[in-house]
Amino acid sequence: MTKIMSKINSTSNISQNVLLILVGVITFYFLWIAAFPKLIVTEESYGEYYWFRASWLFIHVVAGLLATLIGWYQFLPSFRMKSIEVHRVVGKIYTYCIVIAALTAIYLALVSPGMNILGKLSFVVVPIIWLSTITLAYVSIMKKNVIQHQEWMLRNYVVTFFFTIFVIFTKYLPSEVMGVTYNEALLFHTWMSWSLPLFFTELIIQGKKILK
């Protein structure tokens, strides 16, 4: 029985690792086509819409990119078990990046031209959720509640994927395909890029508890 359970756990870990690597590859691709170009700070690469706030956007992109690229590795069971200290250091760097990216995102949303109050609010909500989930993850681990820490970190990383999912939505489901205006599509993409992933994440987290 012990051997069977060991094999099941091993298979589960392998499947989780494969899934995380797949997610990492997909994420890297969309970051490559949408975020990495913003690391080149020129008026040509940023365009007129972003150029006047280029310094803020650059800080936001660097912090968000770093959080996205190191975040997925934190969820690999083999990584956590091999070096808890490294896991903690990377976790701290990830947390700092989230805070910086979230605060700059709020500023960028508020100064974005051409958006009404509803549009700006939709973009402000995301960093607020980002900050809230990372705060609860931090408080959980400070109270030695590892399970809750892991759950809140998972929720937080799902929000970190907002930009990647947003790019996928805007690329493959533009306003023309939806039959709505650009602003209407923008609102849809913004809200769905975090609410839908969080909904499925919560189903998985709570479903595992129910099925135990």
Number of strands: 0
Share of helix among residues? over 70%
**Main sheet record:** none
Shape by Cα distribution? globular
Portion in beta strands: under 5%
Distance between the termini: 18 Å
Number of domains: 1
Q: What structural class should be given to the helix and strand makeup?
A: mainly alpha
Sequence stretches where pLDDT stays below 50 over 5 or more residues: 1-9
* Rg calc: 19 Å
Q: Would you mind describing this structure in some detail?
A:
The structure is a single chain. With 212 residues, this protein is mostly helical. The chain has one domain. Helix content is 84%, strand content 0%. The chain has helices at residues 2-34, 43-51, 54-71, 77-82, 84-110, 117-142, 146-160, 162-172, 175-178, 182-210. The longest helix has 33 residues, at 2-34. The radius of gyration is 19 Å and the shape is globular. Mean pLDDT is 86; it is low at 1-9.
Topology:
Elements lengths: L1 H33 L8 H9 L2 H18 L5 H6 L1 H27 L6 H26 L3 H15 L1 H11 L2 H4 L3 H29 L2
Helix pairs in contact: 1-8, 3-5, 5-6, 6-7, 6-10, 7-10, 8-10
Could you name the key traits of this structure?
212 residues, mainly alpha, 84% helix, disordered N terminus
Can I get a quick summary?
This protein has helices at 2-34, 43-51, 54-71, 77-82, 84-110, 117-142, 146-160, 162-172, 175-178, 182-210.
